[in-house]
Amino acid sequence: MAKKKGFLDGYQTYDTAGGHGNAQSWRDAFKQTMSKEDATVLMNEAVQTPHEILGISPAASAAEIKTAFRQLIRQWHPDTNQHRLAEAEAMSKKIIAAYTLLS
After folding, report:
1. Whole-number pLDDT of residue 86
2. By CB distance 3.0 to 4.6 Å, which of 31, 45, 78, 102 could disulfide with 88?
3. Are residues 20 and 44 in the same domain?
4. Closest CA to 52 of 35, 39, 65
5. Using CA atoms, how far apart are residues 37 and 34, in angstroms rounded to an integer?
6. pLDDT tens digits, residue range 64-91?
7. Taking every annotated instance into account, which residue ranges of this chain make up the domain J (predicted)?
């Protein structure tokens, strides 16, 4: 009987010989999350509140916070904004920090 493939099995066998990075570093980055301390430091530098960054009201529910986060991170992900990479990375960090503090 064949072994059932898991979600990350494709990453474990990904050929990085063409210069796309180390497979282990990709797996580690995939599992890494922003800590509350990192999020607090990043938000202290921001002019906006976490609610303003996500575009939600202060009384927003957990579902509304999650929906706003998913929409914004999809919009500002660096992979989809190659023409403005620095701006996309900065905005992605702000969005992740705001979500981390509110969730």
Report:
1. 87
2. 78
3. no
4. 65
5. 8
6. 999 999 999 899 888 888 888 889 888 8
7. 49-103
